[in-house]
Design brief:
Order of helices and strands: EEEEEHHEHHHEEHEEHEEEEHHE
Low-confidence stretches: 292-297
Shape: rod-shaped
Number of strands: 15
Structural class: alpha+beta
Mean pLDDT: 87
Strand content: 25-35%
Strand order of the largest sheet: 1-2-3-4-5
Amino acid sequence: MHREDGVFRHLEFTDLSGMSRISLVTWPYNLLVTGSHGSYHFERFGPDTEDMLNWVRGSRLNLNSWASKLVNGRQSVEEYDRTRLEHEIRDLVAEAVQDGRAPAGLEAAVQEEILDSHWMDDEQNALRLVSEFQLGMRYRSECSCGKSADHDSYSSATCWNLLTHKGEGDGHSVRVRQTAGFAFDDFAEWNIHKLGYHFLYQCHAAVWAVAQYDAARAAEPAFFQPGHTYVDAEFPRANWRFRCDSITTRPEHGERIALGWRFFKDTWEPWAYGEDDWDPHLLIGHRDVSVAGEVAS
């Protein structure tokens, strides 16, 4: 714990190998998760989220919901998923075959020109393959005067009136429609992204870290412990330390009293501390050195 002041915290967790770490930094309505797998800033304003550790404890690990709380937005943690794009392509081709709209050889052509291409590994190149694919396309130019013509390309169909038909006036209104063939459309609306691995890792790690923090806080002693020596970590020049030998209670109301020896002003003397002396406001910064193997002088 680098810092812990109410909802202002800086907690760091490091595994035994030292190769992976995660830090949690909190301030009102904000949580920063940072470490070996990147940094992610969450912000959520609500009646129960001033302390964002409560948000981590109280919510199911809904990764889509967590991504929506990112200050930089969900798109900042999304990455291209080739598998999802392939599913979109296969579904549309299968639908065209089932409906009888597919030209002959559609499945084989899509497999060869798109799905088997090494360009599918890159999002922009993959979408270019999809947008440029056409098979068996036929178009018809139809004029309101009754004349029409069939074409192999859309550009030829749109130029028919200008170059061939040359119909003018109110009696000549030309439209172009597709009569055969297959092409992908509306692919810009396809869902071809997934949440990135590092973001998923850090979300799971944050839940684990909060559980570790809660367990450590629950295990902290609520009072001086016999056989332990305490020093003033914030003001070492005070040369204060207290060695707790035993715990007793006051007969009238049961308050715990720590009995032991206090070292102060270069002198050891018998001393007793009550529960009010353990209060964080009175003993903040005092550290149990016996746990670290230190021996009182």
